[in-house]
Amino acid sequence: MAFPDRFLWGAATAAHQVEGDNISSDFWALEHATGSPFAEPSGAACDHYRLFRQDIAMLAELGLNSYRFTIEWARVEPEDGFVSRAALAHYREVLEACQAAGLTPVVTLHHFSSPHWLTRLGGWEYEGTPERFAAYCRTVMTELGDLIPYVCTINEANIGRVIRRIMASAGAVADRRKAMEQAPVGLDGRPEGAEPAGQDSVHAGDQAPDMTGVFLFSFSDAAFDVITDAHVLARKAVREVSPQTRVGLTLALQDVQALPGGEKGAEEAWAELFEDFLPALDGDDFLGVQNYSRIRVGPDGTAPVPDDAEVTQMGYEFYPQALGNVLRRATAAGLPLMVTENGIATDDDSRRVEFIRQALAGVERCLADGVDVRGYLHWTALDNFEWMAGYRPRFGLIAVDRATQRRTVKDSARFLGGIARRNALD
Ligand code: BGC
């Protein structure tokens, strides 16, 4: 079966993970704090801020027709109220490069990192953050909206809920610091550390403070309200200044499966990850679905990965069937769906090929059953900075030698590109 005309085939990145030198961000500060939980700092990352033209051209040459990337708040507004015209001009060049290469841009306005100054105000637990975020979105969309057909306001607005669940299943809620130290790696589905810091901030060289509350990963009730309000206000701002742009947010949606006795727990997990967010999505144009694996919920909570399962570099199960399952469940949002992330961390690229093959077979079956899926954006274009895990996990379609910044296309990239060119699996 062929995929629908104008199906988006692409790769996704996030600014902080690829651009390099994101020095005005909260993450940069935390990476450089003494006792930082990060395996290593992001540093120059993939130097994508400078090399974006070559990277975009590579994606187009592979046969892809879409590129998801972030317009980084910490660059556009590095100080509270100061808008960097240079940063806006840069992102106009990125958008123009996409247009010239025939890639439909899907822009993310917030992908985990925030301006450092926001943490001084209380970050994602501060009641004024929705207005600040909406003002930044208004600025970006006023200046660049003419080149932006799709915008995701907030990446994984439910990431705090995902993390809370992982920590609870590790029995570690009472001791976040310990959980963080024991965490396998990364952010999606992994513990992160630290108690809310209130008005505190962090500077390079400081002792890493407890600052969960200031990050998007906070899972307090206050943070839930701040994050969902931020999305609603941002959507309003986008609509006002760039009415032709389609707007949505993205959610991290694990395939939640019930083991015997875990039915109620599984229902609760899905409600936390998905259903609680539905009121905020009301009025969106699409939902970005991000999926990496499944979780199985038993009578005692999330069950460990089965002993005989293949496990990825992130410690979770190789389970590409999850994507189709999650897309079907996500239809409950009543919105067109776009796969804004799906991928696997592995050094064995043949497993990435297999992962893509199986995940897309699931998407194809969903389409055949009438599920409205508009695109598949693979995570990720380049081997990049996987948050607390540093550069060790490799999610990229394209390898990056960070000493030279040389790119090497992997077989999985050609495989996905071939599917995109044919608009069909075989
Ligand atoms: C995030 C990415 C991250 C990926 C792989 C997603 O949760 O949006 O930033 O790199 O998962 O862990």
User: Mean pLDDT, rounded to whole units?
Assistant: 92
Number of helices: 15
Order of helices and strands: EHHHEHHEHHEHHHEEHHEEEHEHEEEH
> Biggest sheet, open or closed, and with what strands and sense?
8 strands, parallel, barrel
Instruction: Name the hetero compounds present.
Output: beta-D-glucopyranose
| Radius of gyration of CA atoms, rounded to a whole number | 20 Å
Structural class call reads alpha/beta
Distance N terminus to C terminus? 9 Å
Main β-sheet, spatial strand arrangement: 1-2-3-4-5-7-10-11
The low-pLDDT segments are 172-200
β-strand amount: 15-25%
> Considering DSSP H and I runs of 4 or more, what fraction of the residues is helical?
25-40%
How many extended strands?
A: 13
Shape, per Cα inertia axes? globular
Structure in words:
An 8-stranded parallel beta barrel has the order 1-2-3-4-5-7-10-11, surrounded by 6 helices. A 3-stranded mixed sheet has the order 6-8-9. The chain has a two-stranded antiparallel sheet with strand order 12-13. The termini are close together. The chain has 15 helices and 13 strands. By secondary structure, the chain is an alpha/beta fold. The chain has helices at residues 15-18, 26-32, 48-62, 73-76, 85-101, 116-121, 129-144, 159-169, 176-182, 221-241, 263-273, 278-281, 322-330, 349-368, 411-422, and strands spanning 8-12, 66-70, 104-110, 150-154, 246-252, 255-258, 286-291, 294-298, 301-302, 337-342, 373-379, 398-401, 406-409. α13 runs parallel beside α14 (349-368). It binds beta-D-glucopyranose.
